[in-house]
Amino acid sequence: MVRENEIRPSEVAVDPPPATDAGLVFIGVIRTPWGSRLLTPRQGRADGPVCRIEIFDPWREALQGVEAFERLEVLYWLHLSRRDLVRQSPASDGTSRGTFALRSPVRPNPIGTAIVTLAGVEGSTLLVRGMDCVDGTPLLDLKPDRALFKPIAPPQPGDFEVG
Amino acid sequence: MVRENEIRPSEVAVDPPPATDAGLVFIGVIRTPWGSRLLTPRQGRADGPVCRIEIFDPWREALQGVEAFERLEVLYWLHLSRRDLVRQSPASDGTSRGTFALRSPVRPNPIGTAIVTLAGVEGSTLLVRGMDCVDGTPLLDLKPDRALFKPIAPPQPGDFEVG
């Protein structure tokens, strides 16, 4: 079971600095079948239920052309997650590992990423499969899946650097 | 050439709401060979130069176990990017498309994502290949590549839902 907000044996919390280095704007909301963190998938699946990504004004015009991509990368704000754990115990078994070695929603900056398949577009709402978040999760960004996107800008020197 | 901060013909800017819905903390810094946006790769490459991801206190302990993953997902803050364009013209050719149909750094929430290969660990610094950002870019998050990570938490009902 996912945590509500408890700390488990072997976990380590820190006293984090204030989260004021940069600010986010919620650009939409994600509608899923899961009303509680205790029900959500641990990871999305490509054959999962269709979820709705609703885009707010003034960002709707930014959707133009998105229908050309079969898969999208979605970034969202895990608004229910604590942010202060550096070691976590997902199995609650007395062992823990570092937050950066986990895909847990509990992170210093609780940003989730998903690769979804686009099932349809209804006005400024996208229908997608592959989400794993609770209903009402704030949306941060949408991009074409990196594997499907070819840069349009002219080449830059760094494009050709290997090491 | 990437933009400095100009608006090009056919692009559309909006008057965005204040970016105060949530706050970020910079957890580290990314050191790359590219001192200007005019030099950076448009996308990272797996055989690109080794870059350094330096983790700040108090987050260093969160690295424990990260060396087990050959590839990591990196989230970073594109601190030089404007945030108000909903249509962009990467080719500067008089045509534009929606921001969400591009992987441009110019976005309402300018968060970059990269999949990098881990080339080494030196204390609280990771050596990685595959970055595409300017030197000094603030770090937001590190996670195992989704394809390499198996959830440790016990199964949840949503894991089994298809649609």
TrEMBL record, chains A, B:
Keywords: S-adenosyl-L-methionine. InterPro entries: TrmO-like_N, YaeB-like, YaeB-like_sf, YaeB_N_sf. Pfam families: TrmO_N. PROSITE patterns: TSAA_2 (PS51668). Coiled coil: none annotated. SUPFAM superfamilies: YaeB-like. Residues 24-154 form the TsaA-like domain. CDD domains: UPF0066. Belongs to the tRNA methyltransferase O family. This is tRNA (N6-threonylcarbamoyladenosine(37)-N6)-methyltransferase TrmO. It comes from Mesorhizobium shangrilense.
